[in-house]
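User: Structure please.
Assistant: Input sequence and predicted structure:
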Amino acid sequence: MKELTQILLLTLREKRDVALAIVFGVLAGFASVALLASSGYLISKAALTGQMTVLIVIGACLKLFGLSSAISRYSERLFSHRATFTMLGNLRVSFFERLAPLAPELYGKYRSGDLLARIIGDVESLQNFLLRVFYPPVVLLMVFSGTILFTLYFSIYTAILLAIGYLLTAVMVPAYFAWRKSRKDWKIRESRGVLSAEAAEFLFGFRDLKIYQQLNGKEQQLVKMVDSYQDEQKNEGKEEVYSQSTNGFLALLVSLAVLAAGAYSTAAGELDGLFLAMLVMVSLGVFENISPMAAFPAHFEESRKAAVRLESIVDETPRIKGEAELPVGPLTISAENLHYIFPGEQRPALEDITVDFPVGSKTAIVGPSGSGKSTLLAVLMDILPAKGGHVLFNGRKSEEFSQESIWQRLNVVLQENHFFYGTIRSNLQLADPQADDKEMNAALEAVELSDFSLQMEVEEKGQNLSGGQRQRLAIARAILKRSPLWMLDEPVSSVDSATGKVIYERLFKNNPDSSFIIVSHDLSGLEGMDQIIVLENGKLIESGSYAELMKRQGYFYGLKEIEQQIMA
């Protein structure tokens, strides 16, 4: 039950609606019992007396109880559902507040489809917590307690039988089926997550599967997973049906026992026969409220597992970040003994990196594929948290500043840049919502996209754009942000050399006081860089200007020799 503590606390925040739902639920339960009890009493009274006044009064009571039952049931549904929807809203807000600081590392731990299934499906599953887990036992206990006290006045045997019936149908049967469910350990939540992950991967990789003629095999795999998921749903449904059938059968047995005990008491002169039908109808009426308990084990386990799956995403302690704002003006960045290792990996991605990026300098980070270039840039941008060492801004640790303050000062272009469904204008205005058409056209011209119209449609993820066009559009978007610190990760890797050179020249010319940190696998055109940092296997091999590194004839010199031999 401890897994549901957070959900319970969020539910009880809506204590007014929860309390009203319970009150009206109890009133609806009493009204339905009173309705059937009055019907039984009316039948007996009509058979034994001809007093029309009494019959009219009882008939009026029947109408009153019927109306009360309908109004109470409506009010119960209104307040319980309103509390549920508010709780779900609070849960989403609370979950995303805890999720946001961990977001950069989540994709290294979870597949996107599984993550989406948890965020959407498991949150939706918890809507049953109030309606099917917390609320029914409370209402049922109150209704049964009141009914037992009422019948105790007429027959102690009936009261005892109802108490036994309550223990069987509301406690023992749900507990037994909950135990069965925990033993069988249905993995329907996990199966849904895996299926969502595979389906997302199927959609993302459809083109490659088609090209390599592996589409049919992947489709068959998905079909098997769907069949397995459906089988688990069927088995889970069968358990609920078995629980309902068992509860219904025991309720019928108790009602028959009440009839038998009442008949015996009537024959023995211990009970007025006028009340026999009423007590039997009371038994039938009170057990009408027991049906939600048949589904209790399934919904309890479903809510518990959903809470566990959600908690497993955000159970890490988030980084403690300050709320300070980066100072206005020039910024120096320094890496001090930086260390980073990806979750689940053994080899460090970065190891003891110490380097300075002076104000207004142009720095290139180079090295072979997998050497840690992009990882270093991500740590400098505060996207990935350093596992050791620090990133310093003007000599102060990055932990002192909020992420928003850091990102506000950065012009970032990554290897993969997201473009939203819309137009060129709407995607450019992400950087500056106030930018006018003249400024946006100037940014497009700076990256050799002057033939693009601002009204041109952009499909989801920019699928109607080439790789080079997407990169240049990302640079144009960064230009409009007008921040003093540029961090570029292979920004022109899909652009031809001549166009890439023109773009760099314009960036440097138009932003003479800005700092540039550029990750590149291309070793050509680095002569104008103030500093070149060479990485290999996450370690800093050497650093210096182009002339210094070439004169030193070290690692960078060897890379240039290899490049020249290949180009020759």
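The two ends are 70 Å apart (CA to CA).
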